[in-house]
Amino acid sequence: MSGEAFDWHEFLGRWQREWVPRDHQEGEAPEKTYTSAPGGPNPRPLGSPGAPEAAIAASEERLGRRLPPSYREFLAVSDGWQVDETAGVYRLGGVADIDWFHDPHGLTPLYQGDLGDNPSAEEVLLAGMWQRALRLETDSDMSYALLDPGDRDPDGEWALYVYKGWSGELPDRYPSFRAYMEARYRAFHADRAHRPDFVNATTRAQDARVAQARLLVLRGRYEEARPLLEEARAFGRPGSAALLNQLRQLMAPHSPRDQGFLVGDPRYLTELLPLQVLTLAHGGGRRGGDDHWLGMMAARGVARETARAALDAVRDSTHRYAPAGTWGRAVAEARETARWGDCDAAWRVLRAALALWEAPGPDVIAPVGLLADPVLGPLITPERGREILATPRSGQRGPAPEQVPDLDPPGLAWLTEPIAGRRPFDGYRCVWTEATDPTRLPDLLGEEDARLSGPTDLRRAFWRGTDPHRREDAEPWADRATVAVGRTARGWAFAFDGWSHRHLNKLFRSPAAAASADGRAVVVWCDPGPSAPGRHGVFHLSVAERGEELYAFSARGTDIQRSGSIPPPLDPARLFRPQDTDPDRELRLLHALHGELGLSLPRFALTQGSLHTFTTRSWTRPPRDGESFAWMSFVRHRL
After folding, report:
1. Sheet with 78-82, side-by-side order of all strands
2. Secondary structure (DSSP) of 118-183
3. Of 28, 138, 274, 459, whose CB count within 10 A is highest?
4. Are 540 and 523 in contact, with CB atoms under 8 Å apart?
5. Is pLDDT above 50 for 174?
6. Among candidate residues 174, 170, 173, 172, the one with its CA nearest the CA of residue 110
7. Range from 31-40, 93-102, 127-136, 533-542 carrying the lowest mean pLDDT
8. Is 394 left (phi over 0), alpha (psi -120 to 50) or beta?
9. Exposed/middle/buried for 6, CB within 10 Å: 0-12, 13-18, 19+?
């Protein structure tokens, strides 16, 4: 508290004037029912007259310690207090009541036994607290309010712990007695906030803060608004939790949050109901299954058929965030751009239109519905979420925020780098086709009847899906690949596979010629091969045009097989030097492909986004007569 002056007379007097009983107290005996309505009887006395200095000093002499400042000041104003928690401590005693706790329940050895070999300072303090603590409460529900002289701050304040013996939980810690009383005052308000008759100067002030915070957020000043909303939420003021939830949702976009009863308001269905489905998909509300969740939504005012349609659409990735007006047209344009991999361009479209977003009502302050769109949702990183919040919108004005930099690096070198907390691709292969629409790739490269999937979360599609070459109808030599499809910044269509972990072998058949019906096609396969001393990875390049292969090479160590007239910048003799390691060779090849052919791949879309996919024809040919072929499969069994 740093010596900050605090007026206990004003604080306790305000609490006393505002006091009304909790709902369950309405039916209690008349002597326990009080009101603070104007003209009514005097409210229930929560405190007592302040203790004289002599009485406080005598208590300190009895205890052998000087009391901490905020508790001492409190006693001088009110010698005890009716805290009136719903469960826990009910009354704090005065100077004649307080005494040392002495750990009557033997909690010290229990907590000391759980310290472990390297306990934190906080854990050590808590373990010793039970023997040192001063007990304050005189009426409680198996709960204790304990001031710890061993846990003190530079101002001499003692930490206050509230231990609820029936809960099985660690005690709640407050840095001082004053902090505890302020928290209890906020809880008193929050417990009664739903009552229409609970109106006073504090509720009006907090409601004004919520209204002020809403305008600040719409003007892009969300950091100023956040503490206002946090305080109002602690007082239980209507709307504060929903607005704060939206701020937190955009600051941590992929941490689903319950949207509460606001989801049932027809004005907000477009923005909030699909987000509520995401909470279910990530485990929130999964207990009891879909029927339980649908029942929860019905209880919040969402028609069961509406909730079911939203659930099915989000689950099968067909949901589309489709607001109206100019903002809606920008969303549609951004989705069309993002679904082919240019996530940075898609974000720029959204950024340019953010100011045109209109709040559908006072309780929604940002286009959070973006997050549930399977194509656009992954684009909203925490940094971009903050840029959304910092952008003035819905008719409000303010300075434009600093723009978040693009996320996709140029070229292909990123394929060798760690990505989003994981290792680089363990081998990859890709086909690029020039002057080809990506929708044509299944016809050029796909297995029979291949077609593009809808935009798919690639992490789930490839990490949890079934490999095409393990299907029951797959020949043992076949090497079909599930590829992600998109378009590069220079207009090449691509089909990328970085997940199959297959190895380039003598049966390999380049798909470059088949892919080149509309113009040039390029095939690259970087295969690190098995890790073993003296073994090298394989690097393959083939280029074709109008159905004819122009040139190709495959390099393993110093062994290079080549055909056609290879341009000097791509000549493997220049790219792969004998002293190079495989990572050096790979990086030099990727730089050359970008410089000579203009090839690139979108990192964000391939590692965090959603793209269309299809299954290719086999990248290997059948064994010829006399050729041997062996294959192995491994099945993991749980014991």
Report:
1. 47-49, 78-82, 89-92, 137-140
2. S--HHHHHHHHHHHHPEE-EEEESSEEEEEEEEEE-TT-PEEEEEEETTT-SPPEEESSHHHHHHH
3. 274
4. yes
5. yes
6. 170
7. 31-40
8. left
9. middle
